Amino acid sequence: MSTGGVAAALCLVLLGACSPAPALDDLDDVRAARDAAAATAHEAALERAAVFLRDKWGPVALPDVPVERWVAAGEWGPTMARCLDDAGFAGTRPADDGERLDYSAVQLGSTREFFEIDVAGWICQARYPVRTWFEDDVRAIEAPWAFRYLTSTLVPCLLAHGYEVPVPPDAGAFAAGWRTDAGFDAYALVGEGAGDRARAAARCPSPETVLDGAT
């Protein structure tokens, strides 16, 4: 085992007493609290968008639209394009890796149609929000559970399968980077190929995968 692996193992010994393996019931509670916080933030964002619509078009009666499905950031564009297509506005295309919409091919011939596509966009956004857009609202809920999972479950699993593991950060640094590009990567020392990383993640799922229910 390399120096990094030894350090990771020592870190686990030191953290083991205060980081019991997260229980399933605990995970369910975290998911419920996370979803409630994200839903509240989503509703606030929808209300701001509604204010914009009414400033632009005057009094607009908007329906009460429940969330149909939370989508990943890269999935948002294709999902919104399909939703708008179903609403009668063909031609909307995802752009910038699915994080933006291109309306240039949409055929709109009247002020009424411009109004209707704005309302349809609001409805589609209500149906398919992106949880990571509200990461500041959910970080304080997810990160403590994810850190305990990392130190008590993920790192021991990787070590048991013979993988090297970087030394985990402390809880504060982990939380600061949670669900960001600068976040801690437990698989950073896994083999160079994408297949090696995929196999390691399948054997020892990341906290994001577990929290998002993709196991």
Task: Write a concise synopsis of the structure shown.
With 215 residues, the protein is an all-alpha fold. The protein has helices at residues 3-16, 24-57, 73-86, 111-127, 135-160, 171-177, 194-203, 207-211; strands at 93-95, 100-102. Helix content is 59%, strand content 3%.
Describe the structure.
This protein is mostly helical and 215 residues long. The chain is built from 8 helices and 2 strands, in the order αααββααααα. The chain has helices at 3-16, 24-57, 73-86, 111-127, 135-160, 171-177, 194-203, 207-211, and strands at residues 93-95, 100-102. A two-stranded antiparallel ribbon has the order 1-2. Strand 1 (93-95) and strand 2 form a beta hairpin. 20% of the residues are buried.
Mass-distribution shape: elongated
Strand line-up in the sheet with most strands: 1-2
Q: Could you give the count of β-strands?
A: 2
In quaternary terms, these chains amount to: single chain
Whole-Å distance between the termini? 28 Å
Tally the helices: 8
Low-confidence stretches: 1-19
Helix % is 55-70%
**Which value, in Å, is the CA radius of gyration?**
22 Å
Please trace the helix and strand order, writing H or E for each element.
HHHEEHHHHH
Instruction: Let me know the largest β-sheet.
Output: 2 strands, antiparallel
Q: What does the average pLDDT come to?
A: 86
- Look at the helices and sheets and give the structural class: mainly alpha
- Beta strand %: under 5%
Question: Characteristics of this structure?
Answer:
215 residues; mainly alpha; 2 strands; disordered N terminus
